[in-house]
Amino acid sequence: MSQGVYISKRVAVVTVTVTALALLSVIAMVIYHRVRTEECPPSLLPTVVTPASVPTKPLANIWLPGNLVPESYRIYLQTPLHTRDIGVHNQNLNFSGNSTVKFLCVEATDRIVIHSRDLSVTVKGVRDGHGRAVPVKGFQQQNDTDTIQIELSDTLRVGRMYYLTTEFEGVYHNSSGMFMRGYKENGTEERYVVASHMEPTDARRVFPCFDEPAMKAVFTVTIIHRKGTIALSNMAQKDQVEKEIDGEAWLITEFYPTVKMSTYLIAFVVSNFEYKETNYGRYTLKTWARPEAIAGGFVNYAHSIAGDIIDFFEDYCGIEYPLNKIDQIAVPKLKVGGMENWGLIVYEEETFLYDARLSTTLHKELLASVVAHELAHQWFGNLVTMSWWNEVWLKEGFSTFLSYLALDKVEPTWNTKDLIVVHEIQGMLHLDSEDVFHPLSLGEEDIQSVSDITDLYGSIVYNKGAAVLRMLADLLSMSVFEKGVQSYLKAFQYKTAYSEDLWIHFQKAVNDSGGHIAVAEIMTTWTDQSGYPVVTINTKSGEVSQKHFLLHQESEYNLTWQVPIKLMKSGSGDIKFDLLTVLGPVSKPLYRADANEWILANINQTGYYRVNYDPENWEKLLQQLETDYRKIPVITRGQLIDDAFSLARAKHVNITLALRTTKYLLNDTEYIPWSSALTNLQYVVSMFDRSEVYGPVKAYLRKLIGPLYDHFESVTMNSTIPDSHSAQYTHNYAVKFACASDLPKCRKMAISLFDRWRKDPTTNPIHTNLKLTVYCSAIAAGGEEEWDFAWEMFQKARVMLEKHWLRLALACTKDVWILNRYLEYSLDTDKISSEDCVSTINAVAKNVVGQPLAWNFVRSRWSDISQKSQETISQDELIEGVTERFSTTFELEQLWMFHEEHLNDLSVSGKRALTDALERTQKNIKWVTENKRTVLEWFRREVSQESNS
């Protein structure tokens, strides 16, 4: 599953306006299927005893007892929703069905415990393998464990097969289980699509099941849907018949049995979509979307790269894709970038659709990375699954890391294997230094609730998982790593595995290659412990040591990692290797430098840690950057900047050292070091853009970014872009920060292009890559006329990406009254969709003028905000967005007041976000207090030196 990994890089795509519908009140009605499983005919089922007759026996935890193991399911599912608009009161927002699960008894029991949540369930009966009924005394729903407990009159015997048949009815949810999405076809006609999202624990919201990843089984699915619609599931269609039910024409579509797999991978879609198809011989690829998206060619890129990506993974994993078909489908307003259901991958439409004329470089790469990520899951997660959710990184970390290798093969000019450093790893290093994150591998006992499982889906399992695997691949060599992967997958295909199993197979690959690396001994220090170390090298004494790195060292953790260190010295291209296994300090000649020699460690940032040096070595590295920066590898230049700023925030070095690492950028045009620098400088800006410090800061930024803007000025003025993929990123940065720091020629360019568009709205002269920056700059420099024009274009825009840019840019105005009006618009669903409410308010908060307005608006309108559905308003994102800049005692006091007034109005995630905001504000206050004078003096000195020269 892709989350925002993708969340932070999320962009919109070309489509017609998508109208999201809130779920309306559901009219309870039961639709019984006319079709029944042959294995369990109704005549064999006993009368069901009332559920209330079973006493409550709550389970000790959320695990199923494990005494029953499913082998197969036969599922019938009826979805009566019309995909065309027939009037909301004529729509039936329920689904219903029946299921028979065949299971093996491995421990004698007189009780069946099976998962079910938000379903109205009738237990129709239990029978043994010979068709004999097992009397049911009663059953009861256990809400605290999402289970139904069925009490039997007889004891099930070890080693025998049994069948449980249930009928059920449920409702469509907003984003999980079975859900519906509304959209407009051709911009006007209301349409609906029904889809499913089961990960991690929502299969139980669709049918009663043994909903744990290790409980793999074979699923035979039949979907009953309205005539004129198309049904899809994991496997290819086996049969379809038309049948009249209750006087209406229905289609009954049966699919072939699945391979053995986990419940979270089951998928269903009912729509009137169309598809693009390619037959690859062993399997057929179909890519589905709304008819106009297919006709417009908006799925062509995603469709074209999928086959090549599958080829890569088949070769890399040594195992062919095991199914005979794979469907990709774009669904509007999915909550994640994609979901890897075996054979039926569901993607978020805005991410998935691509128009070469209008989509950005970032969007194209995001789309490709999401497709690669979900296809990687067909092996990592689908074929081999983690035994329990505590090790979900085994699938998410692998899919994140290997998606970059796949893209490097499919799009070799992008150089994505290096971009992983700034897109995944550097941000993760910052987050993982906050002392709030769990280790990659938790103990099974650490997962005590469903919310504990969903909370795991974050940066740790995706980004840190990828970073640690990248470090291991570099340590072992890519060829040995690949052999270990193949051995692991072949040994556990269609099964589940633990981290220990992975290390065993990597160790086998190491041994077979004649190596002597103790894989498990090294890697468990990275997977079983939180955080990461800072390695400190004294190049005068040759001493090296490690310590748990935290931005705010409030307590000591005596943690030790086995740290692989790649090291180089000036004047030599040779890279040396050392494994630091103790806290130290220990003295080694390898770390000692001569008087005119510098040492550089963690080359290309392959290790997941930071590096600090003695002041003399830092000085030599800074001099090298300013005299000939090319002597230092490009990734390592970015790493030096990122490490220096984090070390400064943790008080390991002075803030002026970190700021000095950016000075050499006057000459560098590479994306990675610029990304590292501007990301870190953005924190400085956000802390001081409301104080006297900001004037010198902005002047320094203009000085720094000016040469980079000049480097790209010709392509900017000609509304073109550089040929190089990474240069396109750098170009975007150059224009964005030049305009943000009020570089006159950038502001003039933006105003000129925007005015040309205003004079001829039918022809937009602004290149797609720069639209958001140009719109924002022009609106910020303009007034009511510019804002009203952009608002008109926003309302008229049929392309989602264009609407996205304009909506964010409208928050850039400096007019307070317009910003206040725009905030009011954010709660008006006739003007701003519910899904875009939070991001619109947060966009205003990012504007230094709008930040206090957004905060006051949230406080004054909290009752309206909190009354909105929790499925459309994300309280945690809202609270984080409007408080991100807080760095004064007054703002801290306001936060405490808000905490006291609204604690009971907050969701669980909202409470957590508010706690985080309080802690972050206190840390920001402390940092500003300690660094304000030093920062002000440094920037004044740098700016005055330019003036004097």
From TrEMBL:
In Gene Ontology terms, what is a biological process of this protein? peptide catabolic process
* Cofactor note (record): Binds 1 zinc ion per subunit.
Show where the Aminopeptidase N-like N-terminal domain sits: 69-265
The record's listing under CDD domains reads:
M1_APN-Q_like
Residues binding Zn(2+): H373, H377, E396
Site feature Transition state stabilizer, where? Y462
Places the protein is found: Membrane
Q: Which GO terms describe its molecular function?
A: metalloaminopeptidase activity; peptide binding; zinc ion binding
* Topology of this chain in the membrane: Single-pass type II membrane protein
In which broad location class does this protein mainly occur, judging by the first location in its UniProt entry?
membrane
Q: Where is the chain membrane-spanning?
A: 12-32
Q: Which InterPro entries match?
A: Aminopeptidase_N-like_N, Aminopeptidase_N-like_N_sf, ERAP1-like_C_dom, M1_APN-typ, Peptidase_M1, Peptidase_M1_aminopeptidases, Peptidase_M1_dom, Peptidase_M4/M1_CTD_sf
* Cofactor(s) required for function per UniProt: Zn(2+)
Q: Give all residue intervals belonging to the ERAP1-like C-terminal domain.
A: 598-922
Keyword Metal-binding attributed:
yes
UniProt-annotated catalytic positions = E374
Mind naming one GO cellular-component term on file for this protein? Answer: cytoplasm
- A single Pfam family it belongs to is Peptidase_M1_N
Q: Which family does the record assign?
A: Belongs to the peptidase M1 family.
Protein name from the UniProt record:
Aminopeptidase
> What does UniProt list as this organism's lineage?
Eukaryota, Metazoa, Chordata, Craniata, Vertebrata
